[in-house]
Design goal:
CATH architecture of the largest domain: 3-Layer(aba) Sandwich
Shape: globular
Helix content: 40-55%
CATH class of the largest domain: Alpha Beta
Strand order of the largest sheet: 1-2-3-4-5
Strand content: 5-15%
Number of helices: 12
Structural class: alpha/beta
Number of domains: 3
Length: about 270
């Protein structure tokens, strides 16, 4: 499942959602700006960065970690150190948030970063410990939904749709999560599963109108810089499944050559 792009869209829509997960959120949480981050000198990448409205605020770094990584905290320490060094004028202090599906995925060896973790700078969130999805705000419910499987995922997705009160952004994200989870099902089968007509939701309307291409192009511009017109045209010609694959692959790109190589291997 393409969780990176799902969480990217969740935080892009509601940046303040991150601060429901931390113990001492900033007073101006609703004014923070969410952005992607890359430390180009090292090729490091962090899932998200929450920039305060003023230079005297705390900047928040976020990692969504659904796979075991025994060097996660060492990598975060290195990435954040370089970023703070190069952007000192933009912040007064920093904090980090790591979102796990459960404790079982968490890094087990932490001796080399024990001071970092003991300082309280890093908040570790376990989605399976947030409580029943029915009692959570919709944004947190979407996060938890990415961890569920089979009948539980179907049931909770329908419940979230009912609680969304027709909010198109929330419904579209629910649909996207479920389409990724049950990729072998036809559109009609997913329609029946969620008790909604997918062709009426914006996620399919935008896909038909190159909405997926616009999202991927925005991510590419953030990742590798401005694209020349010929590469933009090639991306716009990709099918929706190809665009979804590119949205996942681009997270590891370091320059235009990576995009050109990917297009050469995946077009047609």
């Amino acid at each position: 499942m393409r969780r990176d792009t799902i969480f990217y869209q969740i935080f892009q829509q509601v940046p303040a959602l991150l601060f429901t997960l931390v113990a001492d959120p900033p007073q101006d949480a609703d004014r923070y700006i969410f952005d992607a981050m890359e430390v180009k000198e090292t090729g490091f990448r962090m899932d998200g960065i929450f920039i305060p409205p003023n230079s005297d605020g705390i900047i928040y770094f976020c990692e969504v970690q659904f796979q075991p990584d025994e060097l996660l905290f060492e990598r975060m320490n290195a990435e954040i150190g370089i970023y703070v060094y190069r952007n000192r004028e933009r912040l007064a202090d920093w904090a980090g948030v790591v979102i796990y599906p459960s404790r079982s995925v968490e890094q087990s060896r932490t001796k080399t970063v024990r001071e970092l973790l003991e300082s309280g700078r890093i908040t570790r969130v376990y989605l399976d410990e947030l409580g029943d999805i029915e009692t959570l705000p919709p944004g947190l419910g979407l996060m938890v939904l990415t961890t569920l499987e089979d009948e539980e995922a179907k049931s909770q997705a329908r419940g979230l749709i009912q609680r969304s009160e027709g909010n198109k952004d929330t419904i579209d994200l629910i649909v996207k999560i479920m389409v990724n989870k049950f990729s072998t099902l036809s559109r009609d089968e997913v329609d029946l599963m969620l008790d909604i007509k997918l062709q009426e939701t914006r996620v399919y309307q935008e896909a038909q109108e190159d909405g997926e291409a616009r999202l991927v192009l925005r991510l590419l511009n953030r990742r590798v810089g401005s694209l020349p017109p010929q590469l933009v045209a090639q991306v716009q010609q990709l099918t929706v499944p190809q665009l979804e694959d590119l949205g996942e692959a681009l997270l590891d790109f370091t320059g235009l050559a990576d995009l050109e190589g990917w297009l050469g291997q995946n077009r047609g």
